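Run: sequence + shikimate-3-phosphate -> complex structure.
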Amino acid sequence: MKKESNLIINNPKKLEGPINIPGDKSITHRAIMLGGLSDGTITITNSLLSEDCMRTLVAFRELGVDIQINGEKIVIVGKGIQGLTQPKSQIDAGNSGTMARLLSGILSTQSFDSTISGDESLVTRPMKRIIEPLESFGALIKSSYGKLPMSFEPPTSMKPIVYHSKIPSAQVKSSLILAALNIKGESIISEDIITRDHTERLLSYLEYPFVNDKGVITLQGYKNLVAKDIEIPSDISSAAFFIVAALIKEGSDITLNNIGVNPLRTGIIDVLLEMGGNIKLVNCRTVCNEPVADIRVKHSKLNPVNISGKIISRLIDELPILFIACATCNGLSLIEDVGELRYKESDRIEAMEHGLRELGINIVSTENSLSITGGEFIGGIIDSYGDHRIVMSFLIAGLVSLKPITVLNTSNIDTSFPGFADILIDQKIDLYSI
Ligand code: S3P
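>> structure
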């Protein structure tokens, strides 16, 4: 389907059969970055060539790395940890917080000047969470009051990083790990709540020597990354839209093949199982140090749920679609400790609250929680706040709405899930653009 900015969905039909989900966004960013820092040629398969990941790819080309795209394959000729060169112009991270924060770690240790900026959403997102720790170990960073654009000067001397992060953020942790690769001496990085560990898993796969003791990462800089081909699992965050779709749409029975089921990402499956979802993981295996499975999902009657605490970081990106699932249940769901949602591509608490209220759902928010009383969606016009996950969540809501749902400003789907609308169309679901 061609890029449109408003989509209407109205659906009497169930979802069936196998559905192909594209590659994992978090892992694609990291594979391009670590591939560029490796000591040889790496072919990455099932990579996600979405707008976010393309920003990382283009940035690494600007940093002097030879990268070719061949279908869904990416071929990277790594330059080694100290081989990057100065970009000719400012690097544009577009909509991608992951790229901006991870790349900042890499740029803060280079012997050249560089600058990163981003789109109107990204320049409002907090960067202090990486600036403060990086600066305290010697990085020279200028920012716009803790936000993008950020400029990096070559540090005069950089100490090894010894940092315990209080924010549950894989982006903060990974930014510091990537900086530590290019700092002489032993860095030790840890966090209060252990977040997704794709950086650590990929470092091990590429044979970078380090110790991970229950989430405390100890590593020496200036070692080597061995060039090995990387196969990327399909993205559980994208799969989550169709898992919820099949659960809430009567008669549905789908299989999602080759999905990454890293235990630090599968909170959504745990919660949907607790709600009564019929979800089965089969053919469980390990691919390039990441757990992978095929997921079969059948329509189920879901019950309301209460969640809070440590599980939140294991489903942080799936919360918008989980709120849709909660809004279809008979009863009250309470989701607490989700204040980080206010700092995503949009304020996702506000965006979901407005959208669900428009659909007739009773919803109450605080600074870091939401309570949702399930009911029937009456249809309506939804402001997506230009956020890909808000767009896709409300399009899925359209599968069970009494009247059509129109979602405004939907082209941002391509940030993480190009082909999302085509899957709906292949499933013979009525999707119109206006
Ligand atoms: C990501 C970490 C999470 C997540 C984001 C991707 C990553 O962000 O929301 O979509 O790839 O490291 P935070 O680290 O800000 O929680």
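>> summary
Residues 26, 98, 169-171, 174, 196, 316-317, 340 surround shikimate-3-phosphate (CB under 6 Å). The chain is about 30% helix and 25% strand.
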